[in-house]
Design a protein that fits this description.
Blueprint: H1 3-11, E1 15-21, E2 27-33, E3 36-40, E4 45-50, E5 53-54, H2 63-74, E6 80-86, E7 92-98, E8 101-102, H3 103-109, E9 114-115, H4 143-154, H5 169-179
Parallel strand pairs: 4-7
Antiparallel strand pairs: 1-6, 2-3, 3-4, 5-9, 6-7, 7-8
Helix pairs in contact: 3-4
C-alpha cells in the first residue's frame, strides 16, 4: 500500500533541523550516480541524494568508480535513511546508513566524493567558509566529512590521486553551465 510511506514523506518538513529517522529500512532499485540512488519500501519508489557529499559528475574521472562503490555498498542490504530535507528535484536528502555505517562518509574517505560545499559558490577546499560547521546552509555535522576528505587528499586516494588535475564536481558543473551544456 503506497499511502503510509507517501503520507510520511509528505508530512516531513522541507528542512529538518535535526535528522528525522525514517521508521523502516529500504531496498535499492538502482544507482543514478555516485551520490544519488532510487530506493523502495516495497510499494513506492523514490530518489535519495546522499547528504554531506558531492561525487564526480558522469563525464568526470572516477564517476563510474563512485557509482559502482555506492551500488556495492547498498545492493542487497537494508538501507536506513536519516532524512534532512527535500531538494528542488524532490529527492530526499538523507544520511544513508547500511549496518550502522555512513555510506556517504565512506565514499569521501575513499576519495570518491568530496564533502558538500554550498550552492554554486564552489568554495575552495582551503576556504574557511567551506569548512565552517555552523554555516547556515548545513543542518548536519560536516566535520567528519571534512576530516575524511583531508585524509583522502593527503593519501592521494581515488579522485585525489593527482590534485593538479582534480576538478571538484561543483566547479565542473559551473564550467559546463558557462559553456551552455548540462553536466
Amino acid at each position: 500500500m503506497r499511502a503510509p510511506l507517501l503520507l510520511l514523506l509528505l508530512s516531513l518538513p522541507t528542512e529538518a533541523v535535526t535528522p528525522v529517522v525514517l521508521p523502516k529500512t529500504y531496498a535499492l532499485i538502482r544507482v543514478s550516480d555516485g551520490d544519488t540512488f532510487e530506493a523502495t519500501d516495497g510499494t513506492i519508489h523514490f530518489k535519495v541524494r546522499l547528504a554531506g557529499i558531492d561525487a564526480p559528475e558522469k563525464a568526470q574521472p572516477f564517476s563510474k568508480v563512485a557509482q559502482q562503490r555506492l551500488h556495492d555498498s547498498l545492493q542487497g542490504k537494508p538501507i536506513e535513511l536519516r532524512y534532512y530535507q527535500l531538494d528542488p528535484y524532490n529527492r530526499i536528502i538523507a544520511q544513508v546508513l547500511v549496518g550502522g555505517r555512513d555510506v556517504g562518509l565512506d565514499l569521501v574517505a575513499a576519495g570518491l566524493a568530496e564533502y558538500y560545499r554550498p550552492g554554486s559558490d564552489c568554495l575552495d577546499f582551503g576556504d574557511p567558509k567551506a569548512r565552517d560547521p555552523k554555516a547556515r546552509w548545513r543542518n548536519y555535522d560536516i566535520l567528519p566529512y571534512v576530516e575524511a576528505e583531508d585524509k583522502a587528499r593527503a593519501g592521494k586516494l581515488g579522485a585525489f590521486v593527482d590534485l593538479k588535475k582534480y576538478e571538484s564536481p561543483c566547479t565542473f558543473r559551473k564550467n559546463k553551465k558557462l559553456r551552455g551544456s548540462k553536466p
